[in-house]
Design goal:
Structural class: alpha+beta
Helix content: 10-25%
Shape: elongated
GO cellular component, one term: membrane
CATH topology of the largest domain: Jelly Rolls
Number of strands: 32
Oligomer: single chain
CATH architecture of the largest domain: Sandwich
Subcellular location: Membrane
Protein name: Erythroid membrane-associated protein isoform X1
InterPro entries: B30.2/SPRY, B30.2/SPRY_sf, BTN3A2-like_Ig-C, Butyrophylin_SPRY, ConA-like_dom_sf, Ig-like_dom, Ig-like_dom_sf, Ig-like_fold
Strand content: 25-35%
Strand order of the largest sheet: 18-19-30-21-26-27-28
Pfam family, one: V-set
Mean pLDDT: 77
CATH superfamily of the largest domain: SPRY domain
Length: 618
């Protein structure tokens, strides 16, 4: 019936459960007196509802009409930002909600927010179900806010204690009655007492002393006032007020006669707080026989100017003398350098002569060592039981290269399963042994000797401590001996055929460049247990490293270029291959390297001293 009544007479749509709830509370409500009922009847009569129907509804309808009147009132949606409420810094602020309520109306919920607020994270205070709540309230407002209600006036206000400067700004009040919500905006400003005024003399002008009073950090806009020693107000010459970061900064100027004696004061008032700050400056009487300001200025300026001229002359003389001294020192330094250069040139000539002699001896020794090593040549073959599944071995077991896929070979403890390597079939436990391997144009390979007991499963760290004595080529022009740490090898000519010499009793494993008949590197170690040749053709390196490693079946000729051709004798380019004893060939004359190349590969007693020298152009 109530719903039909609302629809018939133009009242807003109100859910039936709200009206029934209001009717159910009529016994607890204090709105059921005759005046409230009479008011309800007048409202229904103004909407065209018959008086009989209004009387039949009784006093219980008046409670529901409170909500209906709240819905029908034209409520403002926002406040005036320029009309603010002022509160002292550190004091208590009371912000009235601009939403008018019907007297004795109890809102369902009241929420105060910092506005504008795109989300609900700026909650200042929440009142719901008859009590204050702290769920979702900003931490800086917890414990400082309270909701004040005046049921008789129908007003709601927010109390903020211990007001801070950050509290100023817009606040949004949201009032909810039933399912309906209205909101409004109110502005809070914080009254701040600024800094103590600061007075300074701006200048003198025709018998007047110009003064400026400055202060900052005030709100609202303060009032500044000058007073002379007799307490009379002085007229300001200029009055500047600047708003910075929400606070006012002032600069007020005035003037007094230079004959004025006593304290001139500047007072800044905060009318909102009823407080002020004052600063005074004493203007003393001039001493007897006062001298004019121009005379004083000349008396000060002339001595200072004379001192500056003297100092300038002294600085110019000192600078000129410093330049002459510097020039003399530079001339002496050049003469000393020329003398040292002549001496150094003589020392370098002697050092070069000695290094050339040492180089000849070392190359001759290396050449003779390589020739002696070749006397112990052995024919080495590959052990297929140790080969990685992706390695392809030739039928004569002297060639090995990396294939594209793993081969169906039985797994055994002797087989490498991660490193693409293979061992020689021979075991060496004593004596001297020498073999040669053709590496051709390969860009990566690893050769040498390893212990029979080395690990062959998983990733392997090849060092002498782990039973590996290897030399490898890691790229087109980079070679290393796998020591710990690795030793970088500087080879003048890349080897196409590598000779490996093992002297078990002497504990020596040497590597030779058969192409240039030069020594590459030597390991020294005390061996125990069987040793085996080691071969690793490495990965394909983008198709540049697909050539096989070839074990030479016999000693190869050392004239460059040397290309080992195992078990192959015949004609090449029309020439007949002849078996000639290589020991009958004369030694190749040693090449003379630049000084830097000789110092680095062949250290001598002079090497440390020569490292820091610059080689002059002869």
């Amino acid at each position: 019936m109530v719903t039909q009544l609302a629809h018939l007479h133009g009242l807003p749509d109100v859910p039936v459960r709200c009206l029934i709830s209001l009717n159910g509370q009529r016994k607890r409500s204090q709105l059921g007196d005759s005046s409230s009922a009479g008011e309800a009847q007048r409202v229904l009569h103004s909407k065209g509802v018959p008086t009989e129907m209004a009387n039949s509804s009784g006093s219980w309808l008046s409670s529901c009409l409170v909500a209906l009147m709240f819905l029908r009132l034209p409520l403002p949606l926002s406040g005036d930002a320029d009309d603010y409420h002022l509160a002292p810094l550190g004091g208590t602020a009371e912000l009235p909600c601009p939403i008018p309520l019907w007297p004795v109306t109890v809102p369902t919920a009241v929420t105060w927010l910092r506005s504008p607020s795109p989300d609900r994270s700026q909650v200042v205070h929440v009142f719901r179900d008859g009590r204050d709540r702290e769920e979702g309230v900003m931490p800086e407002y917890k414990g400082r806010t309270a909701l004040r209600r005046d049921p008789g006036e129908g007003s709601v206000s927010l109390e903020i204690r211990h007001v801070r400067l950050e509290d100023r700004g817009l606040y949004q009040c949201e009032v909810q009655i039933g399912n309906l919500t209205r909101d409004g905006i109110v502005t809070l400003q914080v009254a701040v007492l600024g800094s103590d005024p600061y007075i300074h003399v701006k200048g003198y002008d025709a018998g007047w002393i110009q003064l400026v009073c400055r202060s900052a950090g005030w709100f609202p806009q303060p009032l500044a006032q000058w007073k002379d020693p007799q307490g009379r107000v002085l007229q300001p010459l200029s009055d500047v007020h600047v708003l910075e970061a929400g606070l006012f900064r002032i600069a007020v100027s005035s003037r007094v006669r230079d004959s004025t004696l006593g304290n001139v004061s500047c007072t800044v008032h905060n009318l909102a707080l009823g407080q002020e700050k004052t600063t005074a400056m004493l203007i003393a009487a001039p001493s007897p026989g006062r001298i004019s300001s121009s005379t004083v200025a000349l008396a000060v300026i002339l001595p200072v100017l004379g001192i500056l001229i003297i100092v300038g002359i002294y600085l110019i003389w000192k600078q000129r003398r410093s330049k002459e001294k510097l020039l003399y020192e530079q001339v002496m330094e050049v003469e000393n350098l020329l003398s040292d250069h002549a001496k150094e040139k003589g020392r370098l000539h002697k050092a070069l002569k000695k290094l050339r002699s040492e180089l000849k001896l070392k190359r001759a020794a290396a050449n003779s060592g390589w020739r002696r090593a070749r006397l112990h040549f052995v024919a080495v073959t590959l052990d297929p039981d140790t080969a990685h599944p992706k390695l392809i071995l030739s039928e004569d077991r002297r060639r090995v290269k990396l294939g594209d896929r793993r081969q169906p070979v039985p797994d055994s403890p002797q087989r490498f399963d991660f490193v693409v390597s293979v061992l020689g079939a021979e075991y060496f436990t004593a004596g001297c042994h020498y073999w040669e391997v053709d590496v051709g144009d390969k860009t990566k390979w690893a050769l040498g000797v390893c212990s029979e007991s080395v690990s062959r499963k998983g990733k392997i760290t090849a060092t002498p401590a782990n039973g590996h004595w290897l030399v490898r080529q890691s790229s087109e022009k980079e070679y290393e001996a796998l020591t710990s740490p690795q030793t970088t090898l500087r080879l003048k000519e890349p080897p196409r055929c590598v000779g490996i010499f093992l002297d078990y009793e002497a504990g020596i494993i040497s590597f030779y460049n058969v192409t240039s008949r030069s020594h590459i590197f030597t390991f020294t170690h005390t061996f125990s247990g069987p040793l085996r040749p080691f071969f690793e053709p490495c990965l394909h390196d983008g198709g540049k490293n697909t050539a096989p490693l070839i074990i030479c079946s016999e000693l190869q000729k050392s004239e460059p270029p040397t290309v080992c051709k195992p078990e192959e004798k015949g004609h090449a380019n029309g020439d007949v291959t002849m078996n000639v004893n290589p020991s009958l060939f004369p030694l190749q004359a040693p090449e003379i390297f630049p000084p830097r190349d000789m110092i680095l590969p062949w250290p001598s007693d002079l090497a440390p001293a020569l490292q820091g020298l610059k080689v002059p152009s002869f």
